[in-house]
Amino acid sequence: MSDLEFFLLVSFLILNFYLILNLVKRRTHGNSARNLPPGNMGWPFIGETIGYLKPYSATTIGRFMEQHISRFGKIYKSNLFGEPTIVSADPGLNRYILQNEGRLFECSYPRSIGGILGKWSMLVLVGDMHRDMRLISLNFLTNARLKTQLVKEVEKNTLWVLDSWQDNSPFCAQDEAKKFTFNLMAKHIMSLDPGEPETERLKKEYVTFMKGVVSVPLNFPGTAYRKALKSRSTILKFIEMKMEERIKRMDDKGNGLEKLEDDLLGWVINNSNLSKEQILDLVLSLLFAGHETSSVSISLAIYFLEACPTAVLQLREEHEEIAKAKKLSGEMNLSWDDYKKMEFTQCVINETLRFGNVVRFLHRKAIKDVRYKGYDIPCGWKVLPVIAAVHLDPTHFDQPHLFDPWRWQNTTHATGATPTSANNFMPFGGGPRLCTGSELAKLEMAIFIHHLVLKYEWELVDSDQAFAYPYLDFPKGLPIKVRHRKQSC
User: Fold this and answer.
1) What SS3 state is found at 484?
2) Which of 45, 386, 388, 466 is least buried, going by the fewest C-beta atoms within 10 A?
3) How far apart are CA 90 and CA 344, in angstroms?
4) How far apart are CA 168 and CA 166, in angstroms?
């Protein structure tokens, strides 16, 4: 190396060192000028992500959260998912974050989620496009549709699953719950009938797809993520084929227009200006949202009720009254009015959602500098409102680690929560991104519980419990066996 080359190399290294030093100083000065919450940023890049995502019992907030809240308080800083992060177990800040969507904060899920669900998925969209997609879902999922068509479809699919159960023959309740919700959403979205070959083929691809959604996003041959991307492509081709069939019927002298209104795919084709790619991602994201959370919620209800026979007895009393009234009136199927009579059932649903916490935290990002309770939340930082931490906080819910449906009785709020807990109960999120399918999810749980408690006694055949990975799952699939009951009505 010549003297000139050596001089240039040394000069280059000194210049880079100077620039890096100044950058560090600016960042340090910027952070020191701010009053950030206390916390620990962990290791470079990975921060504390590994500890945060370590599996734990779903009826707790996990050791990581417990230790951090104990040490730093309910609002603390960390480095999660490769980004500086503010973590909130504070109900006031959680509400503030969700209510200021689009003004101070916006949805910000890891890039791998968008890669597998699609860039037009409702889960990852922000701003006007998310609003438009959400309106499509709301306009389709009207109260009138819930009260008429969907009540019938939910009951039909419930019975299709429950009537296949055999006495004293162990099976995985979690798989059965997934079968129920998948069949319902496939019918609701694309008019696919349960048990049909094309429905079963789609379900098989969807199972592979779901394993990738919740896996480490390593896009290499043989990984769950790579297999999921392949299944995503297969699912989208299937949806596209169904779209082309609908459009062909529309072009065929208007034949089949009424049929197109029967499911979401037909409704979107008729009533929106979305592109083909947008429709495909919308349908896939709604299939994902409508299937996964509801199936886990039903599995949790089966699990919690098995250990709470007093609640099961009270449920039976409520549902036997409804069944007797149906028999006297000569009616066979449940109606929306019957659903609204299921008052204690709603208490069980609320407690299942509070105690089980299907959605444990949400991904948001500050789009402006925000100050809250004296703390600064810098623009660009990730923000995680942890819903589960509030639901399991003894400050807001008495004896939160007990399954107690009776805590929701004698309520004055439409949410079913007591005045002291109403603002702290957010199983479906809140603000402009409040889950559009929340009422459908509760309807599914209520009708499933109605027929479950009237038809069967059930018990666990092996010890199992829900774990947060952070997605919820029963490691053994929740193995149970059932016995038919002699119904008194």
Assistant:
1) strand
2) 45
3) 29
4) 6
